[in-house]
Write a structure and sequence with these properties.
This protein is α+β, with helices and mostly antiparallel strands. The chain contains 24 helices and 22 strands. Strand 7, helix 13 and strand 8 form a beta-alpha-beta unit. The chain is globular, with a radius of gyration of 27 Å.
Length: 630
């Protein structure tokens, strides 16, 4: 491949890399200009900004001890960029994201020749759903950013974190994103909570094709018990890339026999009228079948606030369908690029056919000025879900935020749709009869909103036992899906196949095999195991086995937990397997499993000691090692 280009960094990037405020980086440049070890010289100026060679800056920071990041050399790529790359260019960003996604599928990608990179892209994405065309275009231009992509993955500690970092820097460079900019964590959490409340067993969730961070968060919380669909299209490619590196299996279309829940974001650029936003919501409403539901988040100026006559008619048409079951105006500050703009949440569901259209009601809530704490989110979703019921369910629920208005009244309303909720919230404290209930609600909110105190452990202490979900989010662990194998492919020769039932009888491992070429043809994107992978299952009982050799095929529903080699976080494969053997079983239970950890310096000697202890057993039965039954 071509020689890796130098990475450039401006003073804002220097501040991020060093973990200091922007003025501090400027001060270093002037204060140490005449010292024996001056701050590196600027090598060019772009758009009035001085740029520096990132590796020189990182070396200076580490050498002089300035800043708060002793790992500056390894982190330099996260704050820098090649000279010919711009985070404001969507096409360039797409190519970089495709390279990062391919890094998650191919080891040592930077060492491949251009033709091998294309072959790897073709194998990973034969139907060109997410990265093939971007990789081909990049290689045809000489693959100038391949080395940068691999360094970025290392700097961010995982491909998933690298994609998120690129998305943030791209969004920061887009000054006209308006309410289409990135959602803050509280807004994402609210949409996730609403989706989980609507989704149940035998449900398909169709994710938003434009918001990768939102879609990834929803998919992570849904787990493996719910099928995930992302519509095929150019605008969904970056979402599919994020879900690929997060190990989420994605379908192109929903199963028509299953109920569907749609997650939809209706963003808009600055100055875009409300008609286009409402038209997008109307398309979602019209696509819902009788039992389907949807969570819609978008600008409050179109979904809730007063409108022009044309826009008002478009919104009334949607309300007339009877599918809008809940409406909430949210506080401002939920979009990074439009901090003064408020969003709104709509819950769409099945119309109450047993109730006459004139008698139907809609839950409305106004959270203007209310912080979206965990308790606030929980109470709002509880109110909106209760509002989708009828009769006794409505009367039994203690509502905190929502009020009920006739849907016909909303259709005819020219002002704010949540005006009645605003009045209710303003007068609620004046009613003495409500005081006990308000005190209970306040007490519960306080209990739910207290943030835990974080203690920083001594680096030599043994790390605490941690859940699988936390370990994955921290980059210490990765979950790899098993392959859905056709039984007709199994035979006596080829790659060893490990099935879920093999974990009950380890002596059976090796009886099932699949021919190399047939497997590669049918499953070009499937991954083989690596030495130290923990193969596990969740039902009918939790079981696991450590593959010390690697190069095996794991047949679904068995899966793999892969410990990150460069940052294992104190995890030892044999201990992980033992913890799984005594863990709760059932779908989705693996996220709550707790794994014991050891001090990082003891991992290697501990594994050697475990190997020595099991040597006599291994001599009798080669597959008996690391069964998880220790």
């Amino acid at each position: 491949m071509s020689t890796a280009p130098s990475l450039l960094i401006d003073l804002a990037g220097v501040a991020r890399l060093a973990g200091v405020q922007r003025p501090v980086a400027s001060m270093w440049r002037s204060r140490f200009a005449s010292s024996p070890d001056p701050f590196p010289r600027a090598i060019n100026v772009e758009g009035g900004r001085a740029c520096f060679e990132a590796d020189q800056v990182a070396d200076w920071l580490v050498r002089t001890g300035h800043g708060n990041n002793p790992e500056a050399r390894g982190d330099a790529a996260a704050a820098a960029a090649p000279a010919d790359f711009s985070f404001s260019d969507a096409a360039s960003v797409a190519e970089l994201q495709a390279l990062i996604a391919l890094c998650a599928q191919v080891d040592e990608l930077a060492e491949l020749t251009p033709s091998e990179v294309k072959e790897a892209a073709d194998a990973a994405d034969p139907d060109d759903r997410l990265l093939r065309r971007e990789i081909f275009a990049h290689v045809d231009r000489g693959a100038p950013w391949l080395s940068y992509a691999t360094r970025l993955v290392d700097a961010a500690y995982s491909p998933s974190a690298a994609l998120a970092l690129v998305a943030r820097r791209h969004a920061a460079s887009d000054r006209v994103a308006g309410s289409a900019g990135p959602l803050v964590a509280d807004a994402i959490a609210l949409v996730v909570d609403a989706t989980l409340a609507l989704a149940g067993q035998d449900t398909t969730v169709t994710l938003d094709a434009r918001d990768a961070a939102l879609s990834s968060s929803v998919a992570r919380r849904l787990g493996d018990d719910v099928d995930i669909v992302v519509p095929v299209g150019a605008e969904s490619r970056h979402v599919r890339r994020q879900l690929l590196v997060d190990d989420h299996w994605v379908a192109d279309e929903a199963d028509p026999a299953r109920r569907s829940v749609f997650v939809v974001r209706v963003p808009s650029g600055r100055g875009e009228d409300g008609v286009a936003i409402l038209r997008a919501v109307d398309d979602v409403s019209l696509s819902l079948r009788s039992a389907d539901a949807a969570v819609v988040i978008g600008p409050a100026r179109a979904l809730v606030d007063p409108l022009s006559p044309t826009e008002e008619q478009a919104r009334a048409d949607i309300l007339r369908s009877g599918r809008v079951r809940g409406i909430a105006r949210l506080p401002a500050g939920l979009v990074d690029s439009a901090v003064r703009e408020s969003l709104a949440l709509w819950i769409l569901g099945e119309p109450t056919v047993e109730v006459a259209p004139a008698q139907r009601i809609t839950a409305v809530a106004d959270l203007t000025g209310v912080k979206l704490t965990p308790a606030t989110r929980a109470d709002l979703i509880s109110d909106l879900m209760a509002g989708m019921g009828a009769g006794r369910a409505l009367r039994a629920h203690q509502f905190r935020f929502a009020a009920f208005v006739r849907t016909t009244s909303l259709q005819a309303r020219s002002g704010s749709l949540v005006a009645s909720a605003t009045r209710q919230r303003a007068t609620a404290t004046e009613d003495a009869a409500e005081l006990p209930a308000l005190l209970d609600i306040a007490a519960e909110a306080v209990r739910s909103d207290i943030e835990p105190i974080e203690f920083v452990p001594d680096p030599h202490d043994v790390p605490r036992a941690t859940s699988v979900e936390e370990l994955i989010n921290a980059g210490h662990l990765r979950r790899v899906q098993g392959t859905r194998l056709d039984p007709d492919l199994l035979g006596p020769e080829g790659l060893i196949v490990v099935t879920a039932s093999d974990l009950d009888e380890l002596g059976s491992i090796g009886r099932n095999r699949v021919e190399h070429l047939a497997f590669a043809t049918r499953h070009p994107s499937a991954q083989l195991t690596r030495p130290g992978d923990v193969i596990f299952r969740t039902s009918p009982s939790a079981a696991a086995w450590v593959d010390t050799d690697g190069s095996k095929v794991v047949a679904s529903p068995a899966r793999v937990l892969r410990i990150t080699t460069v940052d294992p976080g104190g995890l030892v494969p044999e201990i992980v397997a033992a913890d799984i053997a005594g863990a709760p079983a059932g779908p989705g239970s693996w996220k709550r499993w707790m794994f014991r950890r050891v001090a990082p310096r003891t991992i290697a000697p501990l594994r050697r000691a475990l190997a020595d202890i099991e040597t006599p057993t291994t001599a009798k039965d080669p597959t008996s090692r690391s069964t998880g039954k220790s």
